[in-house]
Amino acid sequence: MTESLRNSGEYENPYQGDQQYAAAPVNPEWPPPPAYAPKKRRRGPVALLAAVAIVAAAIGGGTAYGIQELTGNDTVASSSTSTTVVPSSQKGTVSGVAKAVSPSIVEISADSNAGSSTGSGVIITSDGEIITNNHVVSGASQIKVTTNDGKSYTAKVVGTDSKKDLALIKLENASGLKTATLGDSAGVGVGDQVVAIGSPEGLTGTVTSGIISALDRDVTVSTDESQGQEQGQGQGQQGGEWPFEFGGREFNGDTGSDTTTYKALQTDASLNPGNSGGALIDMNGNIIGINSAMYSAAGASSAAAAGSVGLGFAIPIDTVKADLATLRAGSTN
């Protein structure tokens, strides 16, 4: 026997309208028919876990990409996770990193009473804020910057921090520049592949690659402005490279008495004079360090001087990000 409900919700006698049983009385003691209500679909553990997974995925993906968006000209594209800047079709390739990041790397030419120098820099805002090494622009009376597409700008020093060998300069009358994405150097590990981009010996946009050789190297550099020329003329340094100390030994000349020490990333990516201030990049296209010091075999025998010796150092990008507000405030430390 089946039961049904009318649209009004009244009970309908299943025999009503049947001629055979039309005279049969309905037992008044029958209990009322059960009320049929739509069953609610219960969300079990599987459904809940699926919902949580979807939310987590949305947050993870949204954070990685949303954090890149610029909300203003003075906002740095930064990532606390591993943001993928390189197109997926070229992910993990040196050529992919070079294509994605090279437009954000510049060549810096600085003139001072001590001579002239050539270094590199990283664009961090679309209106021309650029991070570089302090020793590249220290004491400069005139700064010229050339972007990857060949355009030239004049620049002014905004702030310096000789203790960290960092400087912030700003291009004049610049807009619409492609900015780099600052990554997370705390997540870098020994053996990670990296790419270096800069202007060694004035060769703009030179790309080299290698690995992270070591972490937290104590590198000591000079804070003396008179030595602040990457390719100085009349500096008396071997090949004009920036002098530094490591493990109690001096490299590329005398660092002088006024020095500072910082924790550096060590890389075997080929670095040469002019790479200072340029970018050390992970394979997703994030800037993880600012190249700052490199050992040169200049002055040794010609055989020993040939090729890269694979000893380069970079300031971790987390150090740069922590110092950025101070540099923007016009620090001259």
TrEMBL record:
<keyword id="KW-0812">Transmembrane</keyword>
<dbReference type="InterPro" id="IPR001940">
    <property type="entry name" value="Peptidase_S1C"/>
</dbReference>
<dbReference type="InterPro" id="IPR043504">
    <property type="entry name" value="Peptidase_S1_PA_chymotrypsin"/>
</dbReference>
<protein>
    <submittedName>
        <fullName>S1-C subfamily serine protease</fullName>
    </submittedName>
</protein>
<keyword id="KW-0472">Membrane</keyword>
<dbReference type="GO" id="GO:0004252">
    <property type="term" value="F:serine-type endopeptidase activity"/>
</dbReference>
<dbReference type="Pfam" id="PF13365">
    <property type="entry name" value="Trypsin_2"/>
</dbReference>
<keyword id="KW-0378">Hydrolase</keyword>
<keyword id="KW-0645">Protease</keyword>
<keyword id="KW-1133">Transmembrane helix</keyword>
<feature type="region of interest" description="Disordered">
    <location>
        <begin position="1"/>
        <end position="40"/>
    </location>
</feature>
<dbReference type="InterPro" id="IPR009003">
    <property type="entry name" value="Peptidase_S1_PA"/>
</dbReference>
<feature type="transmembrane region" description="Helical">
    <location>
        <begin position="46"/>
        <end position="67"/>
    </location>
</feature>
<feature type="region of interest" description="Disordered">
    <location>
        <begin position="219"/>
        <end position="259"/>
    </location>
</feature>
<dbReference type="GO" id="GO:0006508">
    <property type="term" value="P:proteolysis"/>
</dbReference>
